[in-house]
Amino acid sequence: MLPEQSRMTDSPSAVARTVLATESAALARLGDELPESFDAVVARLLQVQGRVIVSGMGKSGHVANKIAATFASTGTPAQGVHPGEASHGDLGMITPADAVILISNSGETRELADMIAHCARFSVPLVAMTKGADSTLARAADHVLLMPDAPEACAIGMAPTTSTTMAMALGDALAVAMMQHRGFDRTSFAAFHPGGTLGAQLLRVSAVMHRGEELPVVGADTPMSETLLVMSQKGFGVAALVEHERLTGIITDGDLRRNMEGLMERRAGEVATRGPLVTAPDTLLIEALGIMNTTKRTVLLVTEGETLVGLLHIHDALRAGVA
């Protein structure tokens, strides 16, 4: 806590460093003194058939909403419920299939009383996140996530700062532990984050690649006059050489320039570059874009084994929001 006499004399930067040091020390202490019930809480929450309800009053309520959102986005159905609204009908959102996490630094937040009573009445598992080991909330809970009694980071020692930081970090720890136990991976994460840059970065090549009749495919014996027509019609500036259902080569603008002399008398197999660079359908789109940027290519052919299944153009990645 900042000394009372230093409030007006310390520079803003000095105050900031003290606040960050105070909160960092509290988080380190929380890690060292991780609640003994942590594993039991994770196990209990993993068994929940309904939702994890997270609630608190004031700043703890804001933290509760953030924790609920983190749960929901990492594979644990959850929602925040305001304790005041709960007392006026929203208790109906909480069922015996759910579990409730109540956050209160002191454990004596009177607005939580109705939710505590509701959990007791309907046998809803209750987890307390508090530093009050002998508080009303702790005594009523099935599990207590006891936080260290660390000082708040403000000069008067009363504004919720350190306590809310610890609560949010402990919520993150629960969410991450649960997502790992659920086997929640990148694919699962992408399903819950389809929008924005984050969603785009988790897209797979298969989500945006061209396929089927869109592909510029020629055979080894295809005359170059016909090959040029295919390249022009499909609009990608390349042609894929496929022999016996196997991708064996690619024809690009560079190949055309290198074979300008007598080009129209040649066949596709004579002009193509063999062993083209390819990617797989399940490659992350951002990784495929990285390959194209590194190799200065605008097109990647997509294969499963030796079979051509798609084509990715750099514009497809950019349109999807990967940049």
Structure description:
The protein is of the alpha/beta class and 323 residues long. The protein folds into two domains: 4-184, Rossmann fold (3-Layer(aba) Sandwich), CATH 3.40.50.10490; 205-319, CBS-domain. Helix content is 41%, strand content 16%. The chain is built from 14 helices and twelve strands. It has helices at residues 12-32, 38-46, 59-73, 83-86, 113-121, 136-140, 162-181, 186-192, 196-201, 224-234, 253-258, 268-271, 285-295, 314-319, and strands spanning 52-56, 78-80, 99-103, 126-130, 143-146, 217-218, 239-243, 246-251, 273-274, 278-279, 299-304, 307-313. The protein has a five-stranded parallel β-sheet, sandwiched between helices. Helix 2 crosses helix 7.
The total tally of domains equals: 2
- Backbone structural class: alpha/beta
Number of helical stretches of at least 4 residues:
14
Q: Estimate the mean pLDDT confidence.
A: 91
User: What share of residues are in beta strands?
Assistant: 15-25%
**Topology pattern, helix = H, strand = E:** HHEHEHEHEHEHHHEHEEHHEEHEEH
The CATH architecture of the largest domain: 3-Layer(aba) Sandwich
Poorly predicted runs are none
- The CATH superfamily of the largest domain turns out to be Glucose-6-phosphate isomerase like protein, domain 1
Please name the CATH topology of the largest domain. Answer: Rossmann fold
